[in-house]
Amino acid sequence: MDNLVRWSIVLELISELKKVGSWCGETHIQKSTFFLEEMLDVPLGLDFIMYKYGPYSFDLNDDLTALRAYNYLFITSQDPYGVTYNLKDDENKLKKFYNKNIEEYSKQIFAVAEYFGSKTVVELEKLATAYFINKKEGINDNNEIAKRLHEKKPHVNIQDAEIAVRELMEIKATILN
Amino acid sequence: MAKHIHEFRDPIHNFIHVTSEERNVIDSLAFQRLRHIHQLGTTYLIYPSATHKRFEHSLGVMELAGRVFDIITDIENVKHDSVRDIIPHQNQKEEWKRIVKMAALLHDIGHLPFSHAAEEQLLPAGYNHEKLTIQLIEKSDLTKTLEDLRLPPKLVAKIAVGPEEYKEDTFDTWEALLSEIIVGNSFGVDRIDYLLRDSHHVGVAYGKFDYYRLLETIRILPKSEGDGTEKSDEPVIGIEEGGINVAESLLLARYFMFSQVYFHPIRRAYDTHLKDFLLNWLPNSKFSTEPEKHIKMTDNEVNSALQSCYYDSKNTAHNEAKRIIERDHFKLFYSGKDFDLQKNPKATDLIFEKSKEKFGAEKIRRDSYPPQKAADVFPVYLREGRIIPSIKRSAILSQIPIASFDYLFIEPSQIKKAENWLKAELNNILKFS
After folding, report:
1. How near does any CA of chain B get to the CA of A12, in Å?
2. Which terminus of chain A, N or C, has fewer Cβ atoms within 10 Å?
């Protein structure tokens, strides 16, 4: 996918996440974009790897940097803690060039915002890691996914991992139906 | 009695200390090759004293990696409970330090001649210098040297290039942190050394900063990114509050070095000519990825070829050699502007295409470096014990521009025509969709 098209989709996703009250820190954007690409099959062309606390794309980190450099996004620090990404008025200028592409994926963008936009950072780390294991490692059994999640991320205890996998599978079933 | 610690004199760190086992690796052909790879490529054609090599930079990165490792694993410097479990026990620390220092030493051994950035065109698909680095560490004569020293090549390679480039395996949190010591965006020692070393050799003052102070304040801290109800304890490299001003000067130094030195338009023009020369001169227009051939290919071989092609007017690479040797480089006629991109996000693409139509593709070149790897967000440990994001503590950090460029060059005889053409046509081109 062309960089500018991908950037306009990422801006639209941030805009929708904001509408449902997301803090929109980098983790929120990273994990939501991961679901958009991997669960909703929007072909953004981003490469997600399993990083310290779940799926992460260095390419998306560069995209966010570029969107800041070109004045479509800016960051602020808000109490009680954390850096949040904010849209500048100029973001509409980019989106208007790629309106058709945004419309093509608007259902998927809404779905991600609806189901993941209100999750906390800690919840998103667990859900996204579980989905990475499910999709990239091809493991379908919930108990096995939870076990792998705990193995990969020992700071997530097995009970929390099991709860996260159950929730993920419910969301997946709802979204994909 | 035989010495086990040896010293190199160094203009940046005064002395660089190496163990006998590190010296074994330094003496390998793969590492000695770095004595013949210019750290800044063709920059010496503009800044004559920028002739330093990857060899001394790699030694410097190893020296700093060892110092940072000692500081961040010192239990006195652990500021948060979530970090305590990550730090290895005392008896394992020395092993990890050997590994991270070796990874730092070898992080650049895959670089092409002149540290050339046009890897996509000069290497087969799927290759870059990081992949060559991995290959040299894991599958060359160097591999045996590392194994003999009980240094696991795969782990050394992983930490040397980091999770962004090492695709064959995942990183656990500790491995990811160790690679962050070397290649991290904010306080990676690769960056610390090259800014200091490059500014010293180029002869500019703005790359310098008080790195002694910075190193003393580097800590592993939880990222502390959250939403008011829950926050992530993901460990990353941050600093204590006392280092915030030197962190600001590091990021300013980075910005100035990129905009004044690394992105100097004439240097970039020479890079495009060197790329064109290499595409003509190399067999199949590609560098070899075989370790034995890679080791034999240095700036010396390329410089020698430049000379012989220059004096052989029938050689297919003659014209590009002539451009470099006679200093007849292309001239900058447009560089991407924010206000043009606001009018049309494809502004530079459109000007590039239109100028090729107008003047002929052979007379136009493009070179660019998109904005990437922002380094202004990291956790800061305050004196009273709270951990906050850097941009909350510093009003300067998020205001430092993110360096990038997008240059269009034209054959020198056409520069005036191109400038006049662009002045007349720019508004029309930007309307084009």
Report:
1. 16
2. C
Q: What is the pLDDT of residues A71-124, one digit of tens each?
A: 899 999 876 668 999 999 766 778 888 888 999 999 999 999 999 999 999 999
Whether B314 is in a domain gets the answer no
Residue of chain B nearest A118, judged by CA positions: B227
Count how many domains chain A has: 1
Say if CB B272 and CB B365 are below 8 A apart.
yes
CB contact under 8 A, B389 and A83: yes
How many domains does chain B divide into? 1
Q: Do B167 and A58 count as a contact with CB atoms less than 8 A apart?
A: no
Residues of chain A neighbouring B341 (CB-CB closer than 8 A): 70
By mean pLDDT, which of A133-147, B22-36, B73-87 is the weakest?
B73-87
CB-based contacts of B307-314 (< 8 A; 24+ apart in sequence):
B309/B277, B309/B281
B19: containing domain: 5-266
A chain contacts of residue B338, beta-carbon cutoff 8 Å: 70-71
Answer yes or no: is B371 within a domain: no
**What are the tens digits of pLDDT across the range B345-365?**
999 999 999 999 999 999 999
Q: Do the Cβ atoms of B391 and B397 come closer than 8 Å?
A: yes
Task: Using a CB–CB cutoff of 8 Å, tell me whether B374 touches chain A.
Answer: yes
Alpha-carbon distance of A60 to A7, in angstroms, equals 9
Residue B432 — pLDDT band, cuts 50, 70, 90? Answer: low
As a whole number of angstroms, the distance between CA B167 and CA A7 comes to: 24
Range of the domain at A144: 3-176
